Amino acid sequence: MSPRSRVATARTRPACVLLGCGAFRVGQGPSRRINPQQSYESFGQGGHRPGEPRVVNRVRTQGRNWVRVISGEERPAARLVCFPHSGGTAAAYRDWSSAMPAGTQLLAVQYPGLADRIREAPAGLITEIASCVGAELSLLDPARCVLFGHSLGALAAYETARVLQAVGRPAHGLVVSGSLAPGQAHGGAMHRAGDAELWSILRDFGGIDPSIADDQELRDLLLPPLRAYIELTETYRPAAGPEPLHCQVRCHYNTGDPLMDPARVEPWAAVTTGRTGVRVRPGGHFGSLSEPSELIADISEVLLEGPALP
């Protein structure tokens, strides 16, 4: 099969093939996009006039949006924005639609280098993800907004919450899973492993669907973006002395996750002046996603808290 055919195949594979997360398997159908922007400039730098889009410093999206509408009303009372893990796709959250509280719009982030953005280079920094996503979210009508992220996505959601707070659109809540706290997450050499070793590690974590574990061509296609996003996580360092968030933060992790260390998870409580909480349960790194009912219930509780918006 030609390289072009392999790209086409990767685009139409189920999301579990592209991101691999155990039983967290859903189809990768199309999702709606928020008004495409060809470029963003000067996001959060002042000089913004009403009616003009808030944007980031010259980040080209080539018409491919970061934020995808999975389900819900265009003018919701509440909005959930999901940030996938390394190699994750926006479409992986489609099965969450039926579990959302009434009046909630479900959005998910699509990283470059994966799914319908597979021809693009992966993001170079977690703060790049946050700036681009923050730019698109700022174009939406105000609504009670909760950010959720798993693993890499947890750090991207945190940085996005910082962006939104800085421009006067603070998140209502941040829910994270499978991630050490900012400032604790750097380190690790997984991204420097050889191809065969890295693929084996991801398979052992439940991150590679067994149906493609021995597919050499698909492995060669998917490993570069997977490695790039793992590197973002392992080399991430938050800004020194950042302004704390003011929203509530809830953290989930599983006791069987080899990437977790309770002492390095607890500092999530220090990123905010708001209420915090930790939920611990059995399972591996992808346990919260493969059986997400408890996680979704906790997120829904955060979505429903607080006064109704006008």
TrEMBL record:
Protein origin, superkingdom: Bacteria
SMART domains linked: PKS_TE (SM00824)
Keywords carried by this UniProt record: Hydrolase
InterPro entries found in the cross-reference section: AB_hydrolase_fold, TEII, TesA-like, Thioesterase
Coiled coil: none
UniProt keyword Cell membrane, yes or no: no
Family that this chain belongs to: Belongs to the thioesterase family.
Protein name: Thioesterase
Taxonomic source organism: Streptomyces paludis
